[in-house]
Amino acid sequence: MIYDVIVVGGGVAGLMAAIEAKTDTNRVAIITKGNIFKSNSAMASGGINAVLDPEDKSALESHIEDTFKSSKGLGDRKNITYMCKRSSEIISKLVSYGVPFQRDEKGNIEQRPFGGAGINRTCYVGDKTGSAITQSLIKKAKELGIKFLVNTYVMNIIKDSNRVCGVISLRRLDSTVLVYPAKSVVLAGGGYAGIYRGNSTNAQDYTGDLLAVALRAGLTLTDMEFVQFHPTGIAKTNYLVTEAARGEGGYLINSEGERFVNELDTRDKIAKAILEQQNKGQKVYLDLRHIGLEKIQKKLPSLYTVAFNQVGIDISKELLEIKPVAHYTMGGVLCDMTQTKIEGLYVCGEMSANKIHGANRLGGNSLLEGTVFGELAGQKALEFSKKHEFSTIDYNLVIKDILNVDKIFAGETSKNFNAIRVSLGNSMFKYVGILRTKESLVKAFDYIKYLRNQSYSLHCINKERRNNVELISILELRNALEVSEAVILAAKKRKESRGAHHRSDYEETKEKYTKHILIKEIKKGFFKLELEEKDLLNKIRELIINKH
Predict the structure, then answer these.
(1) pLDDT at residue 542 above 80?
(2) pLDDT category, 38, cuts 50, 70, 90?
(3) CB of 253 closer than 8 Å to CB of 318
């Protein structure tokens, strides 16, 4: 089947893009690696930032300033301003799609505090905001007649010269390689925190597949060293404990019952403080006992249920042990307001680098950024598809992927790919985690290089092609290793501490590094890194805007 617009990814960014791209007459499809309800967006529980009154200039400026301040000099104020100004319209659109935001006695949308915020601006649906938004968008997409191609794994994009032609995908059902031609394509495949398997809120298959796809297509990645570690994951299960738990008054205490950090500080500072406590031999707990059962069940119902079901803790009476976990990734595909350097190819959501979050994302901005730039990407993809016809597809590229799949099935292996994934996750968290040094990054780089070589000797033990989980796992592992190497190299090049990136051997923030690190894979296994240099016009523009 051919489509006018194909969107890869079923989170809020992808769903918004597909909805905006759909008309009464065109064909739009969403490709998802798993089922339609599985995405990191659905796990984003705390809320979505917005200034609900677009005429409130003071509140808008506060949101813009808080976002830029959190980016540690690497946000683009022009793009940030666009996002913040769109927030009221986005909330109105989501309400029209059926999102049941919490409301006060007068019927106004309630807003709660989040870390790093100057004022209360986070709209929410209990502690399941992301899930509520995702479900409403799925319902809207189905009403519009958007096609969902589920359990379909995108292996590569196809381009003709410098224009996108479609995507090459693998159907999980029977391991068949398929081609989906399209006039325009939107990539919205999420982030890469899953490379920290065992130490992440992300599912193990969130390995940055589409970032590896982008590298192979010749696109540039940026800000890959900036990985946000959420301060509060349930210690035994890695389950995300929403920032709303602290926003509603929860305390962080150590084994001696002492509070040691401002619970509403930015995530990087809190995560670092918790790690320092753990390195002293202290356990760290979330204390909600003073809040009371009634408020917890009203404001944090999902957390109450999950804590009891997963670890047997009644958070209204008992302490919940927590730890920092890899949660969100600021790095992604370099783009200009969703437009990549490939014509007709757009990116949005966590896998994009629209220069909003910079070195550290402000809590509550992920769902906003995903919906705002998902909307924009969908509009641009629609416009492009209206002006262009389908391009010629080079099926030699498709044959290459078919042969790759056949090779994975054909050989024999004695290695355990699952063990390699676990080892990768532990190594990344230990050496490329909250605290980093040149020595730790060199260790990580050497080990990942070794694993990359090993990954090409992996083969399916089960030769049955129907619903073969091993095949996808091997392809995901290869992509995860490619992305991991890019993260390590960028972290090694940034010889400073900035935002979520903390170098123990370079504690200071340096003016010379108020730049983005750009990464390209010039050939398989060889990366080129450079600090972004702006032309004179852009330097003048940024000087004026960023000093506004």
Answers:
(1) no
(2) confident
(3) no
What confidence score (pLDDT) does residue 536 get? 47
CA distance 544 to 530: 25
Residues recorded for the chain: 548
Q: Where are the alpha helices (DSSP H) in 194-259?
A: 209-216, 244-247
First to last CA, the chain: 50
Q: How far apart are CA 191 and CA 202, in angstroms?
A: 9
Q: Where are the alpha helices (DSSP H) in 456-504?
A: 469-493
Percentage above 90 pLDDT, the chain = 85
The stretch 407-420 carries a mean pLDDT of: 89
For residue 392, give Cα distances in angstroms to 163, 176, 395.
Answer: 10, 22, 9
Report yes or no: 363 and 243 within 8 Å, Cβ to Cβ.
yes
| DSSP string covering 340-390 | -SSBTEEE-GGGEE-SSSTTSPPTTHHHHHHHHHHHHHHHHHHHHHHH--P
Provide the pLDDT confidence category of residue 307 given band limits of 50, 70 and 90. Answer: very high
In a 13 Å sphere around the CA of 79, the CA atoms on its Cβ side amount to: 22
Task: Supply the residues annotated as catalytic.
Answer: 230, 246
Query: Phi first, then psi: what are they for 402, rounded to 5°?
Result: -65, -45
What's CA 411's distance to the chain center, in Å? 34
Q: What is the pLDDT of residue 538?
A: 58
Task: Look at residues 483, 443, 511, 499 and name the one whose alpha carbon lies nearest to residue 202.
Answer: 483
Which residues, at least 6 apart from 465, have a Cβ–Cβ distance to it below 8 Å?
174, 175, 409, 471
Q: Which two tokens stand for residue 359?
A: 């070195």
Query: Amino acid identity, residue 166?
Result: G
- Rounded to the nearest 5 percent, the helix, strand and coil shares of the chain are 40, 20, 40
- Tens of pLDDT, residues 247-279: 899 999 999 999 999 998 888 889 999 999 999
**Contacts (Cβ under 8 Å, ≥6 apart) of 103:** 109, 110
H or E element that contains 452? helix 438-455
